[in-house]
Amino acid sequence: MTRSRRSKPHQSLALRITGVVGELMITVGVLLALFVVWQLWWTDVTAARAREATLVAQGWDAPPLTVAPAADLPTGDPPVLGPVPVGDVFARLYVPRFGADYEVPIASGVDKRTILDTGNIGHYPETAMPGDLGNFSLAAHRTTYSKPFNQIADLQPGDAIVVRTEDAWYVYEATESLIVMPSQVEVISPIPGLLPGEEIPELTERYITLTSCHPMFSARQRFITHGVFKYWMPVSAGTPAELLTPVEGGQ
């Protein structure tokens, strides 16, 4: 009997410890669940609101919903914007494969907090501007903050990638996608694949590069899509045919 009485306090203490540990685990689980909700849902909500506000604030005129005849498309070099201060929004991206209503602001710079986390697409400022010789290179989130490049892996060779500034359209065509390590910065070289330190030859082509994290929910690698320039047209002339033609399998 004495031994039994002495064991009760020890059992009671063990039960209390087990209860406290259980409550802590439940609390941690709830906090983790709330973090996931914030990371995957609420950041989308806030970034989408910020993005819409940016589009409205630009005050750009809507383009005519007509297609300019191919014979009327300009044949000369496209107009190229001058340097843009970091943080300023200067263009918009349209990708028919991502949906007919896909329209995302492009800002100068790739700072996570001030640019990417606000739902914008970031432009690597050391790379070419839209329509310029070289490689117009962009970055955006894939799983959070309105995830502008969520569907980057769905892009297929031949898909249109369209950039608009206030006065001009620049139409590119996707050529290839690849997965690289974050250190492989040659993907945004003036000629994609040109290694750092290599001599840059005379530029004769206009490229576009989209970059995002890979795999989904990880930053271990980068998913890259390259494209080449097809043509440009003034906004006043209408809308590129690629934006008025549904894409089979698009969103």
TrEMBL record:
Coiled-coil residue windows: none
Transmembrane annotation, as ranges: 20-42
Gene3D superfamilies on file: Sortase
Active site: 141 (proton donor/acceptor), 213 (acyl-thioester intermediate)
Keywords for the protein's UniProt record, in alphabetical order: Hydrolase, Membrane, Transmembrane, Transmembrane helix
Pfam families assigned to the protein according to its UniProt record, in alphabetical order: Sortase
GO MF annotations in UniProt: hydrolase activity
Keyword Transmembrane: yes
Top-level division of the source organism's lineage: Bacteria
Protein name in UniProt: Sortase A
